[in-house]
Amino acid sequence: EFHPLAETNWAEAWKKHSQPISIGKRLMILPAWVDPPASARSIIRINPGMAFGTGTHPSTQLCLQLMERYLPAEENVIDIGCGSGILSIAAIKLGAKHAYGVDIEEESIANAIQNAAANDLSDKVDFAQGSIAEIGSGLFTIQQAPIVLANILTHILLRLFDQGLESLVAPSGILILSGILEEQLPELEAKIRKHQLKVIDQGKMDDWVALVLHR
After folding, report:
1. How far apart are CA 101 and CA 131, in angstroms?
2. Which tens digits make up the pLDDT trace of 178-187?
3. Per residue in 99-113, pLDDT tens?
4. Is 180:60 a contact under the CB 8 Å cutoff?
5. In the β-sheet with 169-181, what is the strand arrangement from edge to edge?
6. Distance from C-alpha of 78 to C-alpha of 143, rounded to nearest angstrom
7. 106-118 vs 86-93: helix axis angle to the nearest 10?
8. Which of 129, 107, 191 shows the shortest CA–CA distance to 156?
9. pLDDT tens readout for residues 197-206
10. DSSP-derived 3-state class of residue 138
11. Is 128 helix (H, G, I), strand (E, B) or coil?
């Protein structure tokens, strides 16, 4: 069936339904245009633009919950496929020293930089277009970190392992993977064993799974 729709600014219309999201014990994701409620939680302001990462998706929430549990204080973080920059910004809010995020999409990097500025964290995060190879070739001042984040779909995670994902994790460090559908878990676990990493924890929400790996 076909029905005429009145001319609408959809970009503005969807904002009316955006609400603060409390995640874990310490974080609250707040749409950048919403006034913060009274809360003791750390506020992360996000304007998603064209990038993935508003805080509503289970994969993002799982990753944030595991970060709260495992993120070491005053250490560097690498964020692969940073999207809106939400994980890098959250890492700083949770006590990380500095976050370095990469994404292959130019629009995502521009959006992540804007979100870092909206949270007054431009001096604590660096975003650049690229992936594992670019980090290894000196894109940033670091090439490894004690904690590495990758909230990307499973078929891309599998490819990233073949490109040396574990090489970004410092010895005895932590790799948090999210964006995994439960039915895809066996294939990913086989890849993890092949690269000699150990699963030490996991989270689940609906059909989505996130893993914590130890190098």
Report:
1. 9
2. 999 999 999 9
3. 999 999 999 999 999
4. no
5. 125-129, 98-103, 76-80, 145-151, 169-181, 208-214, 198-205
6. 9
7. 30
8. 191
9. 999 999 999 9
10. coil
11. strand
